[in-house]
Amino acid sequence: MNITLKRTRAIGEKEAVLYITDKNTPLDSLGLTAEALDFLKKLFEQKQHYVTFNNAGRFVFVAQVEPKEEELYKIKEGFRLIGVKAGKSANGNKIKSLAIQNFSTQDDAALLAAEGMALANYQFLKYKEKPEEEENALTTIKFLQSEVTKKSVDHLQNLVDAVYACRTLVNEPLNFLTAPQISKEFQKMGKKAGFKVTVFDKKRIQKENMNGILAVNLGSPDPPTFTIMEWKPKNAQNKQPIIIVGKGVVFDTGGLSLKPTTNSMDIMKCDMAGGATVGGVLYTVAKNKIPLHVIGLVPATDNRPGQNAYVPGDVIRMRNGLSVEIMNTDAEGRMLLADALNYATKYKPELVIDLATLTGAAMRSIGPHAIALMSKADRETTDALVASGYNTHERLIEFPLWDEYGDMIKSDIADIKNLGGALSGAITAGKFLEHFTDYPWMHLDIAPTAWNFRPDGYRLKNGTGSGVRLLVDFLVNRLK
To answer: Residue 248: is its pLDDT beyond 70?
Structure first.
């Protein structure tokens, strides 16, 4: 269910409204009845900073922000969470349209609240027998034209739509979202947003010697795909493209190294979340006509133990000529990414960023609150991505890529092996990928954040759309 963001000249007398205030806001300016105003002041005095009430037949939500000596990113996230509360209240009261008016000193408070509200309003009801019985009532968020620009509202709308699309792809089951189908979904996104989409079939993948993708695909009844998405506006500010690579394992059984952990296979439809993020980023960049040349690459297959599946001990000659000894067929995502990262060299890129639900080790290291980052880009670029992590509250923790970790993936019979052992698994996976790069590169292991087992604010249960907002913010801030 989509939500629409609109600008309006005035808020209707009976229209539901969220007022964002702070200690300096004259509450008399909210237009409340004397009784409601007295009620509000008493609750604020009692340190209740979010109040919902009926004001002469009109639902009113008032949030008061307390001034604190906090980092800006925490303040911004607070406004998003105010939006989550108001959206929940609106749906609970069957309100279809909610206006936001900002009386606080934070200029972008209304947009931030709308972002949290809209993202929290997402639903995946495709497979419900009677979806209309579960649909959220809220369908429209409004702003006063005097408080926001059309450009900012359009940008947010396109970003929210992209996160929705990303979440939906992650939530789709394998019996719909096969590797060929995910390529079709990217083609639909490209047609809607205006970016070019090219899909390599199995024959073309074979021609390109993408043997990592082909090895993982050996156990599948469905063919692999390799999707290239490209946004190249005439006014692009970069002479060399920025490339975003996403892991597209549409389901991961672990292959013959079947996943040993109890219930660990249950959510493995989310193993293409990196690929879904790439689609979401390209959609937003194209819809918002961001003047950057951006290319997305998504290698896709499922990983199964059937047919002629690859086995531990196999040696695979990769696209760049390196030989890889297979130690575990559940370390398959890096095999796909390696071919895609090597393919990216043909574009002579300015920067390459990959995203993947790559390792359980990343999740065990940092929990669900951050993305694991490894970087071979310059310090300024790396710091810029970290800053975008704070701006969007999709925070990053940087891991090192020291040479000693590379020693852990040396093979006795091949150039490298696809697993480094029980220790430092997220980093050794990054070191594996490094072998296939010869350009500025950053690796994002989104395994900790791509899937939620329970709701967390506007990051709902199941697919979260992790990485879309992060990378869009990074790209926008990269503009000169």
So the answer is: yes
